[in-house]
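Protocol step 4 of 6: structure prediction from sequence.
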Amino acid sequence: MNSAIANLDIINARVPGGGTLRAIRVNSQGKVSQILSMGEFAQESQATKKLLVERQVLDINGDYISLGGVDLQINGALGLAFTDLKAQDSELLAKICKFLWHQGVDSFVPTLVTTSVENIKRVLAVLADFIDSQKSASEPTAQILGVHLEGPFLNPQKRGAHPAEYLLPLTIDNLKLILGENGAIVKIVTLAPELDPTEQAIPYLKNADITVSLGHSLATAAQAEQAFELGASMVTHAFNAMPSLHHREPGLLGAALVNQRVKCGLIADGQHICPTMIQVLLQASNYEQGLFLVSDALAPLGLPDGVYPWDTRQITVTDGTARLADNTLSGTTLPLFTGVQNLVKWGCEIDRAVSLATSSPRQAINISSEIEDTLASQLIRWHFDEATKDLTWARLTDSVLPLSSTPR
């Protein structure tokens, strides 16, 4: 624990969704114990001013304080694709976790794109061991919450960059085959619901406490609605790898946007969806109520633009956007918080943009999104420069230093 952030009162803070200026109280254990209005804080301070407790005060002059980010769709970093993970990569995986921490990410769900059954089983075994080892981590690091299987149960006509030879029919037997003995660490499965006429797959996954996300799909609105009734609660990268919205056939995305129990992942790099359509999506989904940000970052995250291997193929990264040789969009190499900064640049309110990367993804997988009882060392301070219109951020532990934009 960093003693510099114990017994601390953070004053004149804004909290996403909180409205007026707040005071955030950090106790002697370094955890947030209370969030007060500034009026309440002034009254309490007056009443307790004679107590022999030395407390620090940090006036952040209207900046925002939030939880760290949670990335529910990230394919790799620092040159390692999670689908290629092997036992000897544990040291690099630990380095990735520290790298993501310094990118503002508290926790993430490594995403495995469609690959062979053997590869999936190998990676799940490696990640199961690594997740267990993280329980004893002594230094701040991004925690792995589980695994996101983006495939292999995808519609071949909407597979995008996923290799066709590894796609599988959506059956209970194939689900059991994929999950194997390490299925307990699988947190999310992206699937195309129209591939399962028996309607058994989604309830099976829900009973295993796995979040079902619809994606890479040609599902009609009726098929999507039925999938949501069966327990699906997410949509993978809205607009991408699914039919566009149509005024007579709203499709999977239309059905999701009007369902208050469903949250859609959003890639806000300006390439997967143009900023104008992002505004449509934000307003139609009531912002963080129906959306959450993901990076969808590929293995070159943290590396410069260039040509990199991607399974048996290559991707070319230009200005943070990755494409296959045939120009198929395969992902980005931009960090999660770049999406927050982009949304603000495109006109989204700061507190909503921040919530989309911090509290909303937590809610999507049913983990706490409350600041109270959180270690203050995990908190993020956001500053908006009225002159330049730039949104910058830093971990609270670094807030005595100049705030900086998210590096690529």
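Step 5 (inspection) to follow. Residues 400-408 have pLDDT under 50 and may be disordered.
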